[in-house]
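Aim 2 progress update. The chain analyzed this quarter is reproduced below.
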Amino acid sequence: MSNPLDTDAGSELFGSYEAELKLVQADLNQKLDQIPDLSGEPRKAAVRQAERALDEANELLDQMRIEKQNIPSAIRNKVNQRFRNFETDVDQCKRKLKTLSDDRKVLFGDRYTDNPTSDAQLEQRQQLLSGTERMDRSSKRLRESQRLALETENIGRDTLADLQTQRETIVHTRANLLESEGYVDRSVKTLRGMARRYMLLATYGRKAQGLNYLRVLRMATNRIITIAIITVLVLLIFAVIYSKFH
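Predicted structure tokens:
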């Protein structure tokens, strides 16, 4: 009887992934069987090869997981069961590889020991410790750089906020100055009107009371105008100062 995955057009791609995964599994199992007989550098090379084969198997499982959604529901249950079997087999290979990788004495050969005694073993242990210390220092520098970057970002954000506040203050002050200029213009117009009225009064006073009275009236008028201008200017100065600080 033919395999239904071979006859359905929607499952051809899944079938090709399945066939490829079987080949990768066979190669992975072969490498895992060879690792226990090796030590030192050959063992490390075999472990790396097994890790690459395991990564390839996981990639194929991911592709199969996506593709099996396109398989007709009539045969999907059977496909799901076969897919779970593949997942179980790959997971077992992963655990076995981890166990073989964690066997440090076999992995590093006779050079490795938890209690070094010879000079070569002590030197190797010291090198490993030095490498660990360098990694720790690098990690600390990286964390410090990240902290400085965050602090710089916060400072930049605060600076932008301060600049925005200063801009709003300048705009508000400019508006107050423009308003004050309007007050000054109106005050000048008012003072000019007052001056014209006083001049008219001075003219009528000269006709009525004579030249001496006109001189006195003109001096009084000039004094009043001067006092009024000074008063208005002082008030405007206080108004501008007040608006600037509030």
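The helical segments are 4-7, 12-34, 40-67, 73-102, 104-108, 119-209, 211-244. Residues 175 and 230 are 24 Å apart (CA to CA). These observations will guide the mutagenesis experiments scheduled for the next reporting period.
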